[in-house]
Design goal:
Low-confidence stretches: 1-29
Structural class: alpha/beta
Radius of gyration: 47 Å
Distance between the termini: 114 Å
Number of helices: 6
């Protein structure tokens, strides 16, 4: 190895001789001695990386349903913005703009309701009146008559094997009001009523009653008047209602609770 120092002004050149001195440039190994024209201390920037161009994305085409949803949301947003502006500015022009646009929205809603009704009239599978409670007076008359007959059959059948437990107190005004109704119900349907007094005294319609022997506590009776449907043979007791009820309501509740499932008509 030979080291030579030579000074020219402020430049110091150090030459180091090796049997072979190589380095890589641009991916190709070359001997330093074959690249003297580049000089010793020049710096060469690495080649710039080629930027990979991504393909341009084509605008997404909306379906008719997606466009309808976008239009609906835009309509709601516009209406809400016009409303807020009118409230804050109180200007006649802003209020009028809101009112005019609101009329546009209401017209669309009215047209939708009209189309809805026309479709219901022409498609029986969509007509709730044919599957639930009718909406016309004539339909209601038929519906109520059929339901009343079903309720009467139910109570008459249950009267053979069931009875009604009537919990009351002699100082309860609601019990005094309900007692005559319950007495007529007993006479109409032939189902026996078992009066149970919580204070040991009776009522004019039920002068002879049974004093509570603890059954009220077992059933958690905290409100009177209280009515329960009892099946002595099966030893089952089912609450029917609390408070004053009409005869028709008593029959309806007994029928619904014993003969139907949720969602059934009758």
């Amino acid at each position: 190895m030979q080291v030579i120092f030579s000074g020219i002004g402020l430049l110091t050149v150090v030459t180091v001789g090796f049997s072979s001195l190589t380095y890589a440039a641009n991916g190709i190994e070359e001997s330093y001695w074959q690249r003297q024209k580049d000089g010793w201390f020049w710096y060469r920037d690495p080649p710039a990386a080629t930027k990979k161009l991504e393909p341009e994305k084509k605008p997404e085409t909306l379906t008719d349903k997606q466009k309808s949803l976008a239009d609906f949301e835009a309509m709601q947003k516009t209406l809400e913005e016009l409303k807020k502006i009118a409230i804050m500015t109180q200007a006649d022009g802003d209020i009028k703009a809101y009112m005019l646009y609101q009329q546009v929205v209401m017209n669309k809603s009215s047209n939708f309701a009209d189309s809805w009704q026309r479709l219901v009239w022409t498609d029986p599978s969509l007509d709730y009146a044919l599957h639930g409670r009718p909406t016309t007076n004539f339909g209601l008359d038929v519906y109520d008559a059929e339901r009343k007959r079903a309720e009467q059959r139910t109570v008459s059948e249950l009267a053979q094997t069931h009875g009604l437990f009537f919990f009351f107190r002699s100082d309860c005004p609601y019990c005094h009001r309900f007692a005559p109704v319950l007495k007529r119900f007993e006479q109409t349907y032939g189902i026996r009523v078992f009066p149970i007094s919580l204070d040991g005294r009776g009522l004019p319609e039920f002068p002879v009653s049974v004093t509570d022997n603890g059954i009220a506590a077992r059933l958690n009776v905290t409100t009177v008047p209280a009515l329960y449907l009892a099946t002595p043979l099966a030893k089952e007791i089912q609450p029917i209602g609390f408070g004053v009820m009409a005869e028709s309501e008593i029959a309806e509740r007994i029928h619904v609770l014993t003969r139907t499932k949720p969602g059934e008509r009758f």
